[in-house]
Amino acid sequence: MDRYSAWRLKRLLIKKRGRNLRAGQAxxxxxxxxxxxxxxxxxxxxxxxxAA
Length: 52
Prior knowledge:
Elements (H helix, E strand, L loop, with lengths): L1 H16 L13 H6 L16
């Protein structure tokens, strides 16, 4: 889910920039960049109860 959301946001930013997208600008939009911008990360936050 984390990969999909970052991929989708990256695609939306590329579409929004259109012809004004500079070379290499899309490469900096990674999962860590989105996390630093405040996107909540789901991977590693789910804790399952221990087996009884």
